[in-house]
Amino acid sequence: MTEQHEEKRYDPNDTTLKFVSRQDDITLDDDPEILRAEMSCGHAVAPQSLTGWCRSLLDQGQYKFMCPALKDGTTQKCNAEWPYVEVRRLAVLTQEEQRHFEEAMAVLAAAVYCEHKTCPGCQTFVERAELTNLCVMCTICTAEKGKSFQFCWQCRKEWKGPGPRSDHCDNIGCINADVDKLSKCRDITLPSVKNVRCPSMRACPTCGNLVEHDTTGCKNIICNRCNVEFCFFCLKTTKVCLLTSSYFIPCSGGLAPRQTSIPSWNRR
Question: Which portions of this protein are annotated as coiled-coil regions (predicted)?
């Protein structure tokens, strides 16, 4: 049996919150019996809706909490980033929820900012310093063996062949699995963009994360890793694409071909 929780409510005597009588900007609920507070971006929320929205972002692999409300009189999302301390307070997170949120955020942030794999020799975690070089040296194995020990970041076998290299080492079967997926993915049609066809999977041009288009809505998609919006058709950032196109028409520069390499994310 799952544990049942009472619906969250704000304390009406809490003078540190700014209460408003507007509808909930996340769910659009306008029940006058529910007390709502104003977030730092100016949009109104209830603790229940705020908790649900932020939990859904974590489930999608996003550790930053962005406001989904529309700006007044527009179809443009607010997308203001809410600090976790603000979310924790206005979502009235329980201790159990705080623990879940903070553990999930830590794991997701580590995946974004740290690129590490286990060494095939000693099984310890090694972080790659040069994102374009697959030839990585393990300092522990090097010290234990008394000679340089290098392994391939891609196939995780002891390095063979000359280096540095960014495509593959000389081990048999050393291929980039992500590039292989991009080359073999099916084509899709985007009904809302005059039925244009394009690959169903793309590597984000900013961070290299593989994303898929579900064929609904416009041709643009927001990467769930770096949160940059880009065009699935031309692979330019939405900001650049919209200089010569719009959300629901084919790009003036034509379709970008299937990608044969994965962009490296320079976070500096």
Answer: none
Say which residues have a Cβ less than 8 Å from residue 173's Cβ, sequence separation at least 6.
Answer: 155
Task: Please say if the pLDDT value at position 8 is more than 50.
Answer: yes
- Predicted confidence at residue 261, as pLDDT, reads 84
Distance of CA 5 to the CA centre of its chain: 30
What does the buried/exposed string (b/e) look like for 189-206 if buried means 16 or more CB atoms within 10 Å of the residue's CB? ebeebeebebbbbbbbbb
> Is residue 71 within 8 Å of residue 54, measured between CB atoms?
no
Q: Which residue segments constitute the domains of the chain, with CATH numbers given?
A: 19-112 (3.30.40), 114-174 (no CATH), 175-267 (no CATH)
Paired with 32 in beta bridges are none
Angle between helices 47-59 and 95-113 (to 10 degrees): 30
Burial class (CB in 10 A: 0-12, 13-18, 19+), 26: buried
The DSSP call for residue 85 is: H
Enclosing H/E stretch for 65 = strand 65-66
Judged by DSSP in three states, 201 sits in strand
Q: Considering the entire predicted model, what is its pTM?
A: 0.52
